[in-house]
Structures are given as structure tokens and as C-alpha cells.
Amino acid sequence: MEKIYKIVAEELKIPVDKVENTIKLLDDGATIPFVARYRKEITGNLDEVQIGDILQKVEYLRNLEERKEEVIRLIEEQGKLTDELRNSIVEAKILQEVEDIYFPYRKKKKTKADIAKERGLEPLAEKFYTVNNLEEIQNLAKDFITEEVPTVEDAIEGAMLIIAQNISEKAEYRERIREIYLKFSIIEAKASKKAAELDEKKVYNDYYEYSEKIDKMASHRILAVNRGEKEDILTVHLRLEDSDREKIENMILKEFPKNDLVTTYKEIIKDSLDRLIIPSIEREVRNALTERAEIESIAVFKDNLKNLLLQAPLKEKNVLALDPGYRTGCKVAVIDKYGFYRENTVFFLVEAMHNPKQIEDAKKKFLALVKKYEIDIVSIGNGTASRETETFVANIIKENKLNLKYLIVNEAGASVYSASKIAAE
């Protein structure tokens, strides 16, 4: 744990002892707001944002250490753990690096390359790095012909599959290709065959012929594309410019000798990229994009909510609050100018539009409350039946020439809060 505290302290420029003290408080069950407000002397006056950052980084590093231990155990159980491999895992700085190292050892369905290995073609695959031309490989392949590998072509194909899989399992290639995709790839979205049927209102029309570099893509567009894809309205994929794709191919080509087999090597590399590497890298990059978009969106929602909650209060006004509704009626509450609850009742407005007696009864109740509590403002929730309730209030103010104003207020969160334990208390 001391190592984790030190890493977090260095990253956040916070003293190690303050990081350790903060985490101990949180581990003991204290909440971030509680620690920020009531344990300033222990944390060194850290605010909620700093404490949240500490918690996030410590949790990540704890998960990283747990995953390292798990991966070491899993590889060791296969009898394939070497000192070099163990050190690579221990020295990994991020989870993705650990996953890249573990990738070749992960249990997966048997592949064509695995079958080729079982048929004894791995030694032939190794010969691709020592021969000079295709004729030499063809001659060597004759020694690998069996009942399961009936022709020279079958032997060479199996060896190429093995090499392609070996390339796809190299952590350094996956890391570099991922970096290139994160920095240079372009996301392309098009209307699916079902778009006309599923998107009659053209909600996703802006994305029917859409492309943008992912490092420039705004979070709301990332999430919109994801929704369109999930609803089968859009088809989405990533692509690279030809020059970026060529950089990747040339990087891998360097592991092969320079000889007359270059065309064959390029064929192997293309197969490895298109069939094995890029599909999984695309998924990883899309997941990373989504994670970034969600984090950014949450930050925006947080700021919007903060601004909403910190709006200037309505001071020294008696308020008649209406929660519009249909079948269950319009719930009414009175709050006095000191913020105290005074009374509640129910008006049946909307369902009673064709019932003059109920409407008249609602008007009498409304006017009685206005007079009794000297109401200054009527607030109307913007949810179901809001417009009909607004019409009722506007008409009664006009008919009775009341010195009264009304406003529409945002109901967001009110329903959830009203049904909560804390609201009941």
C-alpha cells in the first residue's frame, strides 16, 4: 500500500501522509463530503475534488495490483511463467499493459493456427525467418505433408496462420497499434438497411453519412453514434488513412528478413491485422471513447446540476406549489416565506375538465389557500399535465384579478426524492 500512496502522492502533488490518512478514513466507511468537511485537520484541508481524485487513483492502482497477481497465477498454472515474464507484469503501469502481456495466454476457442500447431507445422513457420525465397519454403514444406496436411499448399497455409497469430499476440505491436488508432483513426457512421424503418423521425439523420477523427469527437456525438448503432439505425466502424495503415505494416515487416518473400510476409501481416488484431483494437478504442464521453458528460451534468441547485432562492415569498397530474389529481402544498410547510390538498383539474362541479370545487380551494396564506407565487411542475394546470391557474388569476404570479419549475429529481426515505423523514 505504501507504494500506491507514493504513486498517488506524486501524481496529484499531495503529501504522502495526507493521501494515506484520507484513504484510511474512506476505508473505514467515511464519505467524501464528511471527510472534506469534518476531517480537515487529518487530510490537510483537502477539498471534495481532491479527495475524489485520491480515491479514484487508489482504487485503480489496487485493481491493477490484484490483476497483476491474478495474471501471474494464471500463467504460472499453465507452466509458462518465466522470470522475464513475471518482471514485465510486475513493472506494468496500466491495466491495458497487463492485459496485452496476458493476451497470448488467455484461454480462448481453438483457432486455425492452434490446429496447425497440433499438426506439427510450427517448425515450418519458424523457417519463414531463415529462408530466402518461396521455392525454399515449398521444398521444406514437403517434409510436413501428412494425412492431415495433404499438400505443400496446406502446409504453407498452416505455417502462415501460425505466424499471423504469433504477430497478433505480441504486446508491443498491440500497444503501438492501439496508440495509432487512438490518435489517428477516423470513426465512420452510415445509415443501416433498417434506418428508414427504425428512424422515421430522422433522429440520427446527421450521422447517416458521418466521419470524424476520434481525437476531435465531442462526447455527445460519441454517445449519439453509440445509441444509433445499438438501435440498429447506424453501422459504425473505425478506419485509418492509408499512410497510417502503412506505418503499422512496415513496423511489423521489420521482424522479417529482407529477401524475396516480402510479398508473402505482407500477406501474413495483412491477415494478422484484418482478422486478428484490428477487430479487437477497434473494440478497445470504442470502449475507451465511450468511457471518455461518459466521464465528460457526467462532468457537464454535474456542473448543470450545481448551477441549478445554486440558483438564487425565492426569499420572503409565500408559495403555493402544484404538482400536476391526471388520474391521481394535482397535488398541492403551501410553503410560507420562512420555508416551512403549512398545508396540502389535491385538486382534480385535468380529468375534471368536463365536470363543472369539480372544477368549481378546485377554484374554491385554490382561492381559499391564496387568501389564507397570502400567497405571492404559484409554482407549477413541468411534468405530466403541466400545460392544463397552467391554463387553470392563468384563468383563475385573470377571472379574479389576483395580484399573483405563477412560474413553471423543473421537476427533475423531485419525484425520486419525494419517494425516498429522507423525504419521508
How would you describe this structure to a colleague?
The structure is a single chain. This protein has 425 residues and is α/β, with parallel strands linked by helices. It has three domains: 1-103, RuvA domain 2-like (Arc Repressor Mutant, subunit A); 112-305, Tex N-terminal region-like (Orthogonal Bundle), CATH 1.10.3500; 319-423, Nucleotidyltransferase, domain 5. The chain is 59% helix and 11% strand. The chain has 20 helices and eight strands. The strands form two sheets. The chain has a five-stranded mixed beta sheet with strand order 6-5-4-7-8, with helices on one face. A three-stranded antiparallel beta sheet has the order 2-1-3. Strand 5 and strand 6 form a beta hairpin. Helix 12 (171-184) runs antiparallel to helix 15. The longest helix is centred in the C-terminal third of the chain and has 48 residues, at 262-309. It is elongated, with a radius of gyration of 33 Å. The two termini are 41 Å apart. The model has no long low-confidence stretch (mean pLDDT 92). Residues 317-418 form the YqgF/RNase H-like domain. InterPro entries: Ribos_protein_bS1-like (IPR050437), RNaseH-like_sf (IPR012337), Tex-like_central_region (IPR055179), Tex-like_dom_sf (IPR023323), Tex-like_HTH_dom_sf (IPR023319), Tex-like_N (IPR018974), Tex_YqgF (IPR032639), YqgF/RNaseH-like_dom (IPR006641). It comes from Fusobacterium periodonticum D10. It holds the Pfam family Tex_N. GO terms for molecular function: mRNA binding; structural constituent of ribosome.
